[in-house]
Amino acid sequence: MLSATLIVRNEELVLEACLSSLTGLADEIVVVDTGSTDRSEEIAARFGAKVFHFPWCDDFSAARNFAIEQACCPWLLYIDADERVRCANRNTIEAALSIPGAIAATVRFHPRSGFTAYRERRLYRRDPRLRFEGVVHETMLPAIERLIKAEAGCVVDCELTIDHIGYDQPQTHKSERYLHLLTRAIEDSPDRIYLWWHLGSIRRELGQIEVAEACWRHGSLLAEARGPRDGDDCLCLIELIKLELARGNHAAELITRARALRPEHHLLRWLEGKSLMRRRRFRDAGAVFAALSRIDPDRVVAENAYNNEIFGAGASDLAAECAFRAGDHAEAARWYSVAEHATDGKLEYRCKRRLAELKSRGVLQHSPESLDSGFD
């Protein structure tokens, strides 16, 4: 029922774990090698994969579409070597893919370790009308939407989870390569906000902050001009907000603009809390972090992925800091206790809780500078 398709190049360090995770799920594995000089092809063959060769032509869509053309099963899963499929119930997955009219199916996708999941369309019918587009950050979404419209089809949710570990390592070595491809991609799709966000991110990595900022400003104007549409809406505005906060500003106007596009965006709420702290509105900021602390990241499946640290103990820590700065040391102690329990007694939170308790009882009128420095 299911073919898994991969394009690889020198992936011997991660490929085995990926292919191993597909055991029992994929009926067929198609690996397209675009010029490996390591053991990638040998590893793929050892797992029974069908190995093909495709000359690299600076076009990810071309390579992925070639892989599609080699697959035989009625449903296809595209996955990369630095991704792993979590254990899944094959019967449940088959039931989802058997729903009448299903054109594609989403999976729970974790883009990096320590981040929440979002829904991504990784499963799709084998159909000549379904092909990837774009030389980089290739996407099948336009083709899927066209086919859904043509056949009155639908996208279903599949209880399959994929973890991406590629971003757990520095990505600087890929910057120059992606810079060239992104420039080409933007020429083809100048209104695609994600491309402007990534281009700005690479420019930042290369130390070109002013160029990065210009990319993000352009992307943010595109997003506001088209109005709310998808999870990419706020990417560029978020980078501008982070930049302003790093410069010592409160970024309130940028936050208002971003929340007009995505009012429920958890990271925007977290950044708003930091902005409120910058403006010394500690009680308002504390309310923001208190709300975030009550969210279980394991249950978050939204349009965007979020760093788990903006929830739970991390948010409780900031709620406590806001209470401390507002002079409510008893409330600060309560929130530090919440963070302490959530982290099995982490020493940092235990010390902060004890300090807040002493100040709440008037035992410690002036905190030692070494302890207060944590609240600057």
What this model shows, in words?
Helix 8 packs across helix 9 and helix 13 packs antiparallel against helix 14. Strands 1, 2, 3, 4, 5, 6, 7, 8 and 9 form a 9-stranded mixed beta sheet that branches. Strand 2, helix 2 and strand 3 form a beta-alpha-beta unit. The chain is of the alpha/beta class and 376 residues long. It is globular, with a radius of gyration of 24 Å. The chain has 3 domains: 167 residues, Spore Coat Polysaccharide Biosynthesis Protein SpsA, Chain A (Alpha-Beta Complex), CATH 3.90.550; 92 residues, Serine Threonine Protein Phosphatase 5, Tetratricopeptide repeat (Alpha Horseshoe), CATH 1.25.40; 66 residues, no CATH class. The C terminus is likely disordered. It contains 16 helices and 9 strands. It is 48% helix and 15% strand.
Class based on secondary structure composition and strand pairing: alpha/beta
The tally of domains stands at 3
Low-confidence parts lasting 5 or more residues at pLDDT below 50? 368-376
Largest sheet: 9 strands, mixed
Along the chain, the helix and strand elements come as EHEHEHEEHEEHEHHHHHHHEHHHH
* Helix residue percentage: 40-55%
Count all strands and give the number: 9
Specify the overall morphology.
Answer: globular
Figure out the total of helices.
Answer: 16
Give me the CATH fold name of the largest domain: Spore Coat Polysaccharide Biosynthesis Protein SpsA, Chain A
Strand content: 5-15%
From the alpha-carbon coordinates, what is the Rg to the nearest angstrom?
24 Å
Task: Spell out the CATH superfamily of the largest domain.
Answer: Spore Coat Polysaccharide Biosynthesis Protein SpsA, Chain A
CATH architecture descriptor text of the largest domain: Alpha-Beta Complex
What is the first-to-last residue Cα distance? 58 Å
